[in-house]
Design goal:
The protein is α/β, with parallel strands linked by helices. It has 12 helices and 15 strands. It has 3 domains: 71 residues, Winged helix-like DNA-binding domain superfamily/Winged helix DNA-binding domain (Arc Repressor Mutant, subunit A), CATH 1.10.10; 126 residues, Nucleotidyltransferase, domain 5; 148 residues, 2-Layer Sandwich (Nucleotidyltransferase, domain 5), CATH 3.30.420.
Amino acid sequence: MKKSITPNQIKQNNRRLIYDYIYENRNVSQQDISYNLHLSRPTVTTNLTALENDGLIQKSGLIDTEFVGRKAAAYSIVPDYRISIGVEILKNEVKMIAVNLYGEKISHRNDKIAFTCDSSYFKTVCDKIFEFKNSFEAEEEQILGIGFAMQGLVTPDRQTILYGEILSCTGLSIAEFSRHLPYPCSFIHDADSAAVSELWSSPELKDAFYLSLSRHLGAAIIAKGEIVTGKHGHSSMIEHIPMQPDGAKCYCGRRGCMETLLSLTSLLPESETPEDFFAKVRQKEPSALKRWDIFLTNLAKAINLLHLVYDTDFILGGYLAQYLCEEDITFIHDQIQQMTPFTEAHDFLLISKMPKHNISIGAALPYIQAFLSELSI
């Protein structure tokens, strides 16, 4: 027998519909809500008052409407009603960012802290997180959680580092951080984190191969709008595909992996910054151009190999994305065209829409996504 919907369920549904409508449209009038959701004005008025009293929405000036008459009061959500923090753990640095319910940056901070897999390091990082949280005066109840982006594979429950050779942290438990913090904490693989940011900025994105061209190479497969983790948790670990059997040694212990050809650490010596290098490239300095052409040629080889396996869009992201230009994309495409047996369209190579803070933002976003999807108002 089909269960009937109770008046309380109808009330809760209307409340949720109104909040979602305001969230999606950002700045709306009472009339717009009533008209577009097919709800009576008294129902809308009652719910707006309740949502405003609960701190979920706010009046935000006046707005023109399709209706004749005076301007109407505009309503918007309170973006920082809840906040999430993303923390990127690197070998010699910790990056933090706080985002609101729209995934927008509230504040960010970088600290030079050398990674050591011991209790003093974890305590130091957590103390920095508290300092960071206090710097933008967030209340305890506003913080949804802390996502830690790691250079390593993460277990499906996001509680343990499954493989962490870069930082020598295999087996690390999230408890080493969470014991010092009163908020939910979890790990996320840094490449997956970057791909989460890309999906957030491009809701229409359904299928793609995301390449994270950062200090280390990483990748994520996006299928049907979700990150594919695979049967054993190591899908898209392209960095360990061998390309030069007698090449440089990879941190995995083998030689000639894609990592040794397509990471920023393989492109730049420690004494050179990306800004300095790309200034030379754009000024056509011969030695920099030669290095860049070799890098792009190897990138083209890798993309061609992967594209033959998965015929989809390829998004070039990571720290390197902000320095890429159309000339580089054309060069890569021309190289691929010489390698592949097929006529390749130019439209499958894309530059990330979120080249800055993408990893740390992506670490924070799962808590925002969970809050919005599970919100009971």
